[in-house]
Amino acid sequence: MKEITIQKNEAGQRFDKFLAKYMNQAPKSFFYKMLRKKNITLNGKKAAGNEIPKTAHVAMLTALEHFEIKEYPMPEVGDGDILVKVEGCGVCGTDAHEFKRDPFNLIPVALGHEGTGEIVAMGKNVKTDTAGKPVKVGDKVVTCMIFKDDPEITMFDLNKKNVGGADVYGLLPDDDVKFNGWFADYIFIRGGKFGSTFFNVSDLDLDSRILIEPCAVLVHAVERAKTTGILKFNSRVVVQGCGPIGLICIAVLRTMGIENICAVDGNQQRLDFAKRMGATMSVNFMEHKGIEALSEAVKDQFGGHLADFAFQCTGNPHAHANIYKFIRNGGGLCELGFFINGGDATINPHFDLCSKEINLVGSWVYTLRDYATTFDFLKRAKAIGLPMSDLITDRFPLEQINEAHQTNLAMTGLKIAIINK
């Protein structure tokens, strides 16, 4: 890079005079960097750094367990569209299912829905995000679901239905746009009647923004649990399954003030992390033979009492069948582990549900309101010292996306993320 010498008597002069003298000597990248640091706009738009390239890369899943880094022309930004430079994206369990089995029959597909990045271009009609917050070039954003023309989904009237029937960036059928998922250099957020929803989250750090989508799943699950009227400050709560979803569930409960939380899993490292996230006790099911022994172990942790409420966070049908044994008569259960069909679970309706009068709720994805609430959850979790960023144990560049997904399948870490350079 070319070296520029600044005279001592010029150090304190007005910035505009400094630029006038030196901008012709500096490379364009230096000029844009100085504009960003001084929050200066150029032709009415904040400088976004490098100019938008004519082509960019997308990690396209072209076969089972195989991504190819493809290069495509950048789409033209229309009056209602937004172009976002991707900063990072988490690898979700849904990505793992698609990578391994393609249950949605989408291949070839641009995956990645836990992403975030910076707006680098936007149409003239884009003024605010889905919550009505102003947006501009340079803001950090995340996407939520794509609702098209569903009249029952609005930002402020969300009791009618969740977003289960909606589309999502990162699970869209491939088309001419190509930049449909967050595993890419850029993502194209479509305007008009396409039904995109997005949020300005410029006040959150990168790790927090990557965790918004999975955290929203748990904010929604806890809201569903609260509808039973059982979940209280002094409730005894079991969380079964200490992958990222179960660990975030513990964090959400802890930020609500619930302290009597027992984590159940077969991995001791994950159980140890559960205590960092707010669990006060744990049971390793590998140390107990049979459901009766396991149930007694949970009961012992609560001083001889069964749980008031339980969250089932695994996709294992046997785990669902077992968890009823951890819950007291009149207690509650939230089942959220089966995002896809994981098989049938066998329970005894008389002993497990009817005679115990268990209050059972299911939970699946979230509402728009839950998404907005999640931003406040993340701030609260950080304020009370929960190690949310430590959930992201492995970070890979885009070109190593196949290795990232294999690491996710191996379950050697917790949350895997693609971090762009």
Largest sheet: 7 strands, mixed
Give the fraction of residues assigned to helices: 25-40%
Structural Rg? 24 Å
Mean of the pLDDT scores?
Answer: 89
Quaternary structure classification:
single chain
Overall geometric form? elongated
Strand content: 15-25%
Low-confidence stretches: 35-48
Cα-to-Cα separation, first versus last residue = 20 Å
Helix segment tally: 11
> How many beta-strand segments?
20
Structural class: alpha/beta
Structure description:
By secondary structure, the protein is of the alpha/beta class. Helix content is 28%, strand content 24%. It is built from 11 helices and 20 strands. It has helices at residues 15-22, 28-37, 93-101, 206-226, 244-255, 268-276, 291-301, 317-323, 349-354, 368-383, 401-410, and strands at residues 41-42, 45-46, 55-63, 66-73, 82-91, 109-110, 114-122, 140-143, 145-146, 167-168, 186-189, 198-200, 236-240, 260-265, 281-284, 307-312, 327-335, 359-362, 392-396, 415-419. Helix 4 crosses helix 5 (244-255) and helix 4 (206-226) packs across helix 10 (368-383). It is elongated, with a radius of gyration of 24 Å. It starts with 14 loop residues before the first helix and ends with a strand. Residues 35-48 have low confidence and may be disordered.
Output the keywords.
six-stranded parallel β-sheet; 421 residues; elongated; 24% strand; seven-stranded mixed β-sheet; 20 strands; 11 helices; alpha/beta
